[in-house]
Amino acid sequence: MIPYTQYRLRVLAENSAGQGPWSEWVSFRTQPAAPPAPTDLTEEQSFPHAIEISFLPPSPPHGVINEYRIRHTPSGQMNYKEVRVLANRLQCSDISKRDRLCYRVVDLEPEQEYEIQASAHTEGGAWSDWSEPLGAQTHEQ
Fold first, then answer.
1. How many CA atoms lie within 13 A of 44 on its CB side?
2. What sign has the CA pseudo-torsion 54, 56, 58, 63?
3. Residues 1-36: pLDDT tens digits?
4. Taking the domain 39-137, which CATH number applies?
5. Cβ-based burial of 85 (10 A; exposed 0-12, middle 13-18, buried ≥19)
6. What is the pLDDT of residues 34-64, one digit of tens each?
7. Nearest partner of 105 among 75, 81, 78, 125, judged by Cα
8. In the record, what terms sit under GO molecular function (predicted)?
9. CB 35 within 8 A of CB 18
């Protein structure tokens, strides 16, 4: 069964005497689970000390996405800095990007290449895997 999906079912008993009547319909929803990773990380704008990114939320979400983790590291290094952001804080100001989520990664060094990734979390579920890394560079000061 698919996580966090609404189902309806009914049963029919059968034995050597034949079939019984169908039961009433019963509706239920499966439990949430870890979503797939966010996709299509894109650099929207670069600054000397920040990079603005956008990405697509997980699909299917496997629950209600309530939080994201966004991490970055200078390219070629593994010393990630990570932030957690509530899902409702990631709306893009550009109306043409209403299907995407936006975030500004800050406190970066000028003229530095960074790898940026995102991960999603469902209420009552778990964290997704990290997205594919996005390579992006800050501008000179």
1. 18
2. positive
3. 999 999 999 999 999 999 999 999 999 999 999 999
4. 2.60.40.10
5. middle
6. 999 999 999 999 999 999 999 999 999 999 9
7. 81
8. cytokine binding; cytokine receptor activity
9. no
